[in-house]
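Exercise 3.2. Students should predict the tertiary structure of the chain below and write it as structure tokens, then compare their answer with the key that follows.

Predict this chain's 3D structure.
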Amino acid sequence: MPKDWRDRLDAQAKHDLKDITKKTITYKQAYKASDNPAMSQIWIALVEISRSLKNLEKRIESMEKLHFKDRKKSDILKDLENW
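Answer key:
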């Protein structure tokens, strides 16, 4: 069994984990001051993921508004059926 559990991850998972870990470094002083720094870093990673999701939702919403603006209801329904 590998010493490092990350050795069992596929390449994409390793890459994603590295990216989210880099994003938490901004808050290093905060999670290092915690009684449980590892768990605090996980919570911060969740906050970063949540922010990313919210930003994507906002972008999708604005794209939908642009796409559906000034369109007939029948055209929108056709688009939804095709989707």
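Discussion points: The CA atoms of residues 1 and 48 lie 31 Å apart. Helices lie at 11-24, 28-32, 37-68, 73-82.
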